[in-house]
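Task 17 of the worksheet. Students: predict the tertiary structure of the chain below and write it out as structure tokens. Keep your answer in the requested format; marks are given for formatting as well as content.
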Amino acid sequence: MPNSERTAALRKRLYAERNGIVADTMCRLGVVYTENWGVSLATVRRIARETTAAYGYDHEWAKGLWLSPLRELRLASLWIGDATRDTDLWLQNMTTQELRDEYEFVLNVKRDR
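Model answer:
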């Protein structure tokens, strides 16, 4: 399946889980993203895990997702790709503490496997 179709399918799954109250609260507390659907981290992780089970790990696709303005795609990309490769790409685009924390969490989980 081409990356554009996989991205559309992933966006559709994440969109179904959106929570405007969470997104508004995050913005009010200063956690600002260009686009934020308010999907919980646990749900993003579950969907990313299911996505990698269906399509496999794909670092190139993950790099494209990481450059998206959508919070949920950026978070999912850390699980879909290899966060230990192309570290400059990941680190240069860490715009929030949440992204930094998730990146560190992914590195620790994948290291322990």
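Marker's comment: Residues 3-111 form one domain. The chain has a mean pLDDT of 92.
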